[in-house]
């Protein structure tokens, strides 16, 4: 299975997953699919691919790729997106195994009240060819909002996942969260009553890479030894509008 998660796909058809299949010379018996949950896309894609593999015993390996090319779509006058967004891709391979590890549980929290705060293309795809549409009307439209609104849901969902799986925060080795806002990470940390050593932050190095950002944080945790085989890890991110997946994994 090949799953490609992006909110800025290079093509809408063919699927980008199909192009990856071609480049990798994949087998004919391969599921190829694109997905889009905005900045929450790769967390959602790994979660849904994991659940699919649990229900379909014929899937032994899955490649999940998350990639956004957001900087080119930013309005240069926007003080949030233009200086903050970076571009990067991440990939993980999921393998069917008899080991006691892998996907454990997840929760989704959706609140669509802010669904028009962030829009791209701002004018809508059906309007991009109108003669009176300017480039600025095509780029990302970012209406200012309180970005901390997702914190309470994040803390509540992490606590619920811990409770229903018989774990505590002491059992979690790392929190690989959306890298959009260091403040949000700090607020989640405070809400869980934890110190910062378990919270991996790479946004100051790579910028905000959107869908791939929790997994770039995960890679850093593996590299520096904070995440080892068998460790419990939380993945969490936020998609515009809001769609918020929280996923518990054992590496």
UniProtKB/TrEMBL annotation:
Keywords: Acyltransferase, Transferase. Residues 34-111 form the Beta-ketoacyl-[acyl-carrier-protein] synthase III N-terminal domain. Pfam families: ACP_syn_III, ACP_syn_III_C. This is 3-oxoacyl-ACP synthase. InterPro entries: ACP_syn_III_C, ACP_syn_III_N, Thiolase-like. Residues 162-250 form the Beta-ketoacyl-[acyl-carrier-protein] synthase III C-terminal domain. One of its GO terms (biological process) is fatty acid biosynthetic process. GO terms for molecular function: 3-oxoacyl-[acyl-carrier-protein] synthase activity. Signal peptide: none annotated. It comes from Paenibacillus etheri. The keyword RNA-binding does not apply.
């Amino acid at each position: 299975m090949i799953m490609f998660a992006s909110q800025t796909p290079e093509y809408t058809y063919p699927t980008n997953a199909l192009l990856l299949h071609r480049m990798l010379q994949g087998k004919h018996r391969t599921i190829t699919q694109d997905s889009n949950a905005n900045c929450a896309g790769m967390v959602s894609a790994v979660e849904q691919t994991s659940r699919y593999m649990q229900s379909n015993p014929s899937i032994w390996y899955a490649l999940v790729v998350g990639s956004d090319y957001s900087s080119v779509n930013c309005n240069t006058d926007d003080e949030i997106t233009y200086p903050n967004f970076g571009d990067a891709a991440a990939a993980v391979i999921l393998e069917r195994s008899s080991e006691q590890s892998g996907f454990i549980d997840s929760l989704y929290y959706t609140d669509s009240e802010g669904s028009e705060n962030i829009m791209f293309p701002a004018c809508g795809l059906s309007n991009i060819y109108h003669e009176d549409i300017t480039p600025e009307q095509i780029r990302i439209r970012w209406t200012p909002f309180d970005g901390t609104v997702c914190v309470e849901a994040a803390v509540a969902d992490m606590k619920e996942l811990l409770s229903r799986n018989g774990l505590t925060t002491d059992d979690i080795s790392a929190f690989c969260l959306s890298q959009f806002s260091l403040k949000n990470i700090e607020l989640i940390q405070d809400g869980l009553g934890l110190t910062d050593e378990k919270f991996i932050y790479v946004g100051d190095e790579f910028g905000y890479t959107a869908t791939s950002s929790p997994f770039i944080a995960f890679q850093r945790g593996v590299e520096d030894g904070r995440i080892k085989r068998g460790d419990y890890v939380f993945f969490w991110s936020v998609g515009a509008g809001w769609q918020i997946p929280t996923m518990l994994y054992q590496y």
